[in-house]
Amino acid sequence: MEPVMNIDGLSTEFFTEEGTVRAVDNVSFKIGRGETVCIVGESGCGKSVTAMSVMGLVEEPGGRVTGGRIGFQGEDLLRLDKNSLRSIRGHEIAMIFQEPMSSLNPVMKIGEQIMEPLSVHLKMNKKQARSRAIELITQVGISRPEQIMGSYPHELSGGMLQRIMIAIAVSCSPKLLIADEPTTALDVTIQAQILDLLRGLKEDSGMSILLITHDLGVVAEMADYVIVMYSGQIVEEGGVVELFQNPQHPYTRGLLKSKPVMGQRLEELYSIPGQVPSPLALTPSCYFHDRCGHCMPVCRTRQPLLKETGNGQKVSCWLYEEAELYV
Amino acid sequence: MATDIRVKEIEGIRPGLRKSSLMRQSLRRLMHNKLAVAGFAVVVLMFVLCFIGPFFSPYTDNKINMAFMNKPPSLKHWLGTDALGRDILTRVMQAGRISLTVGLASMLLSVFLGSLLGAIAGYYGGLLDQIIMRIADLLMTIPGLPLLFIFGALLSEWKIPTDYRMYIVMLMLSIVNWPGLARMVRGQMLSLREREFMQAAVVLGLRDRRKLLHHLLPNIVPLLIVMATLNIGGAILSESVLSFFGLGVMPPTPTWGNMIDAANNILDFQNRPWLWIPPGLSIFATVIAINIFGDGLRDVLDPKQKR
């Protein structure tokens, strides 16, 4: 089956006073129809920037997508003109953000904000848009939709606002929904509800989801396919079951190990030592080498490539390329 | 799946906030500010007096009656008459019409120009921003009053008919006033445009015009209202100054400014205070009331800017 989105060799750079920072470095992946792909990683590993690049939110003079291709419906999003891009955004590809409180316009009524994409993209008139908006509010699990339509964002709670954001995002039945840490700003019970909601909507409509998160619990719950990023690169990817059962990259192992296990008592929870390296001071090496328990001399001098290791998993680590090394 | 989510819905909105729109909340807070309410009342009173008052007057503003020259206030002429026997009260009310209209109209024009140009400059940035803001800077580097004097002198030089001068004075005042507003609006735009909800608007695939007019401008409406209010007072003052120096609206059309001109004459100044005190007091009362009201509005609409 043809994937909904095919990202190939995406690189994004930001221009800072200290120099150019490559936030996303040669990232390639596909999102299949109806599939949920999760990108996980620590803060600053480039997962949000990947999503922003896809949406065309990286703008000069701050930064620039420097290379690659984002294939969507046979076209390259990076080379589309402004108008075609605008008709795709919000219509075919929608996005929800981390902070529902600040993602809605504070001086516009909720109703207007839901009706806006309906009238812009689907050319609905006021009446149609209104009834569809009420339908959408009900669909995302909020009662008294009429009343909500007339309220302002500050009158609703974070959880409700995130539901509204989701309603706006799915209003035009997008093929792909990008969710950038949609539950991070919410408390745990609401998190579960929002994830349930996203999953339900996905099953009903068959859209694909690109979910950005740092929470492995969310990954386990939502993902079909997982991409682990570190320092702007993909270090490991694979099906969710395979990856959780057989993590190969030391970083993935570390991440899984640092997750508390229900019913297990520990003195101290494991954490990966060290910090993400500064993106300004990267040398050709495995970027994880100074935090890695399996670091070998080669790790410090050459960068491993993403290689298939069977099971549909790919990993970029010298541990799995030994054979090749000594040839 | 979708149905049991609906059952899980446990949050509700607070009932107390239910039916009050933002405007109504602000209005309620404004009503608590006694001084601002009083200011507003004075402004309304001024408007009513000036626009409806003349209909009840037995005199017209330009009717010359030599039999009643320079009469002090009496029952017949409540505020006396001037050197041409014209009724001062009627003239003050007529003058108020002109002064208030000039103030209001030039405010509307400068708010329109200022917010539009400021919004465009702030939103698009780049070359457009440079061009607009350098023009604004240019206008701001020249002190406002001399600039107005030059304009006024030019008008007299070109012999513009008196009837048109009122409109040209409005235009002049707007040209002097928009740069300050544009700067303020531009600053607001620069910060608003980086807010997350604007990123959400980009992601929704909205047009620039829609983003500007529907998403950004409503966010600065409180600021605009406050600036606009304070601007009226300033415009009335500037118009009065110009007219006082004979560079604004020309007699016989009365304005508060050219009526105070009577104080220029030492005889009138010393012996006939009824000629210049009423228009002077009108300017004073109106401008002070507008400023007090504007301050109150600012406290209500823009709590961050409290002194």
SSE layout:
The complex is a heterodimer of chains A (327) and B (307).
Chain A (H helix, E strand, L loop, with lengths): L4 E12 L2 E13 L4 E5 L6 H9 L7 E10 L2 E2 L5 H7 L4 E4 L3 H4 L6 H12 L4 H14 L5 H5 L8 H13 L5 E5 L7 H18 L2 E6 L2 H7 L2 E6 L2 E7 H6 L4 H8 L39 H5 L5 E2 L5 E2 L6 H4 L2
Chain B lengths: L1 H7 L13 H11 L1 H23 L31 H37 L1 H16 L2 H14 L4 H31 L3 H8 L4 H37 L11 H5 L5 H6 L5 H25 L6
Helix pairs in contact in B: 2-12, 3-4, 3-12, 4-5, 4-7, 4-9, 5-7, 6-7, 7-9, 9-12
InterPro entries (chain B): BP-dependent_transpt_permease, MetI-like, MetI-like_sf, Oligopeptide_permease_AppC, OppC_N
Family (chain B): Belongs to the binding-protein-dependent transport system permease family.
Pfam families (chain B): BPD_transp_1 (PF00528), OppC_N (PF12911)
Structural commentary:
- The complex is a heterodimer of chains A (327) and B (307).
- Chain A is α/β, with parallel strands linked by helices and 327 residues long.
- In chain A, helix 4 crosses helix 5, helix 4 packs parallel to helix 7 and helix 5 packs across helix 7.
- Chain A starts with a strand and ends with a helix.
- The relative contact order of chain A is 0.14.
- Chain B has 12 helices and no strands.
- In chain B, helix 4 packs antiparallel against helix 5.
- The longest helix of chain B has 37 residues.
- The termini of chain B are far apart.
- At the A-B interface, helix 2, helix 4, helix 7 and helix 8 of A face helix 1, helix 8 and helix 9 of B.
Largest interface: A-B, 50 and 31 residues
What pattern of helices and strands is seen along the backbone of chain B? HHHHHHHHHHHH
CATH fold title of the largest domain in chain A: Rossmann fold
Strand order of the largest sheet of chain A: 6-7-8-3-9-10-12-11
Distance between the termini of chain B: 54 Å
* CATH class (first level) name of the largest domain in chain A: Alpha Beta
Q: Separation of termini of chain A?
A: 38 Å
Domain ABC transporter (chain A): 5-256
Pfam family, one (chain A): ABC_tran
Membrane topology (chain A): Peripheral membrane protein
Keywords (chain A): ATP-binding, Cell membrane, Membrane, Nucleotide-binding, Transport
